[in-house]
Amino acid sequence: MYPIAYTGWMSLQEWFVSSVTPPRFIGLANYWKIILGDPRFREAVARTVYFTVLAVGAETMLGLAMALLFNREFWGRGVLRTLAILPMVATPTAIGLVFVMMYHPTLGVANYLVTLVGLSPFRWTYSSQTALYALALVDVWQWTPLIMLIALAGLASLPREPYEAAHIDGASTLEAFWHITLPLLRPALVVAVLFRAIDALKTFDIIFVMTQGGPANSSETVNILLFNQAFSYFNLGYASSMAVALFAVVLGASMILIKVRRTASW
Amino acid sequence: MVRRGGARRFASTAGFYGLAVLFMLPTVFVFYWMITLSLKPQIEATAYPPSFVRFSVSMAGYREVFTKYPFLLYTWNSLVVAAGCTALGLAVGLPAAYSIARWRQQRLALAILVARIIPGIAYLIPWYIFFRQLRMVDTHAALILTHLIVGLPIIIWVMISFFEDVPPDLEDAALIDGCSYFGVFWRIALPLVKPGIVATAILSFVFSWNNFLFSVILAGRETRTLPIAVYNMISYEEINWGTLAAAATLITLPVLLVALVAQRHIVTGLTFGAVKQ
């Protein structure tokens, strides 16, 4: 059975390797071009990293806070878990569409709620100043529950003894959190954050549906730029080299993940 | 004294549920807004200030989705591709996962992790060339094969951990009794990992159903799936919010329902097995 499965799986890989070779061999020229000669690519890389740090950072803090809050027995645990799963499986295209309508500067419910709280309305994805933040907010909405669920699973596996010892020693709740909970939770959190980071670097659906990288390229991440290079300008060789570059960035993040997975055992 | 303690407990419970509602409100609200928008008539859908609870219910949005666009065809396409991708993924993925788990092929396991990590767009360019040369753009087969690259690593990876839990003694006993390797896999291992199969099948289905990136390039007029159809509705300047929300609801609802059934295993799959529930 094994060779058949392996061949089947490898054949998927083979297509990738064989056909990525450009028809005309120009060596590393594309790579020099993206690294040295293309400010748009460099901006896209910076934007992608910024988007990822912003979204995943917010998700981690919110998710951890929620996990700490929900780490107890209470009526409605099942409901909470169900609610947490819904944004993660909902079709991103549809969610993007709903947010486009909510973000509408004059008719959207988002601005209505914002003014209700007493803030002045934003232009969300319709302004080059706020577009990236508005998109990050959608990502946070979708993926905070994942961090929460992973952190909750981590919290559930924590031992009781250190807390009892700390309590006897007169440690405050905050001290116990900082010195016991956080270090013990770290392996689970690191895995959660890295998984999110790897996926956030690759975010495509939401951005493509909501802004297509606009306005004025203000939300153009590497994925969007390279999609347009490949399928709007059919600059396949150039786009391929960008894809490899993106892959290198993501792989870098993943290497850390693999290393962490190996050292952490739970 | 007792009463004060009770009051304090009540206050802390109320505070807890207050916070809980506050945290979960955004999640619920977006879905609530999607569904209510889809039920509002056009004038109320774009009314400002928007109405949250009181509005007149109209099915115009849904009617429009089915009459103005071939939505049934899109739904059929999505179903065929997702089901095909899941079936093929299980057919290839289950034996692969079994062999990796049984003979501890760590390198292969790592390769599958890498396959999960590679940006989808890196596959898309060669595939686009490949399927165009084979004249397979706008076929279900092309979509099924490409969606496999998302589904297969998840199926294999999650199933590895399920197969690892199958006691090897049981398999060895069957082998001694004259069962073939395939027989062991088919009659002993597979029935024991049934919950895993259900979970990964559902995940693979959901991922294929939601896929946008591959379908937007490789689906044509005849094989357009639901996410692409909705995307096109926006770009065709469909300004009727009721219609757009109805389409969004129609795509999302089946996935949400499926997810509710399999919620226990979804987190395992989403984290690629980093957390076993």
Q: How is this structure best summarized?
A:
Chain A is mostly helical and 266 residues long. Chain A is built from 12 helices and no strands. The two termini of chain A are 31 Å apart.
What does this structure look like?
Chain A has helices spanning 2-19, 29-37, 39-70, 77-89, 92-102, 109-117, 131-156, 161-168, 173-201, 205-210, 222-231, 236-263. Chain A is mainly alpha-helical and 266 residues long. Chain A has one domain (26-263): MetI-like fold (Orthogonal Bundle). In chain A, α3 runs antiparallel to α9 and α4 (77-89) packs across α7 (131-156). Chain A is globular. Residues 1-23 of chain A have low confidence and may be disordered. With 277 residues, chain B is an all-alpha fold. Chain B has a single domain (68-270), classed as MetI-like fold (Orthogonal Bundle). Chain B is 78% helix and 0% strand. In chain B, α3 crosses α13 and α8 (168-176) packs antiparallel against α9 (181-192). Chain B starts with a helix and ends in a 7-residue tail after the last helix. The chains are: A mainly alpha (266), B mainly alpha (277).
